[in-house]
Design brief:
Blueprint: E1 2-3, E2 10-11, H1 15-24, H2 28-45, E3 60-62, H3 66-90, H4 92-95, H5 99-125, H6 138-144, H7 152-177, H8 185-219, H9 224-230, E4 232-234, H10 235-241, H11 243-252
Antiparallel strand pairs: 1-2, 3-4
Protein name: Cytochrome b/b6 domain-containing protein
GO molecular function: electron transfer activity
Membrane topology: Multi-pass membrane protein
Length: about 250
Amino acid sequence: MEAGVFGGPYNTIAPEVIRAYEERQVLLPYVFMVEFTAFTIAFFAMGGRKKANITRPEDTVQVYSLFQRFVILLNILIMIYLFITGFSITFGNITGGGSIARFMRWTHEVVGLAWIPVWLILTIIAFKDHKFFIRPSSKFWNKIFLRGTYKPMYRINYLAYVAFGFLLVLSGFILWYLFPDPKTHAQVIQFKRLVLFQHFMGSAIISFFIFETIYSYVVSVKGYLPGVITGRVPREYLEEFRPDVLEEIKNEKK
């Protein structure tokens, strides 16, 4: 398809895809509603929230280093803000305009840029298959890399975070960096629309795996978030839910 709105004729990029997205974006809130509903049903179907039987609350183990806690909590806070501002941008026809909307759009770009190094660092330290590498010191190594091993579903969540996080980082950086000039305005706008579509699709897909991770670590099992905040986890909690982590800690002391 050719267009010539901003100058001479030029080829549009995937007009049928972009048009379909524009026509159906009113259905997107229902898609996220289905995701939340599915996790709610799974929560009750699996017996609700699990809780370790803690009889010795004072017997705790240092699991997370200060560096790990900083990266994890910063990633959580940034992603919460990006989701909120991203929804505000995507559903702008519902939230409307005004100074608040402009502020959220601007800060979405700035905070998104700040998320790039955080995403990269968390991708590296959460690579729990690093057991194949030769480690100079387990004690120092585990202050950088997270302890434990991945169960199959958790590994899928991690790989999805890496893959679709990379898509969000790349597309978000392009959208922020690429700015049209008078000679290339139309072509650049078309390209940015395509990248924006990819950016949204990446956020929609990664949200499912993020919600699943939040459900698995925070909602379905009590005790994860306090451990990340303080860095210490009750030994009985590890014995019941994370024996692989406890085994690594024991091996460090040998």
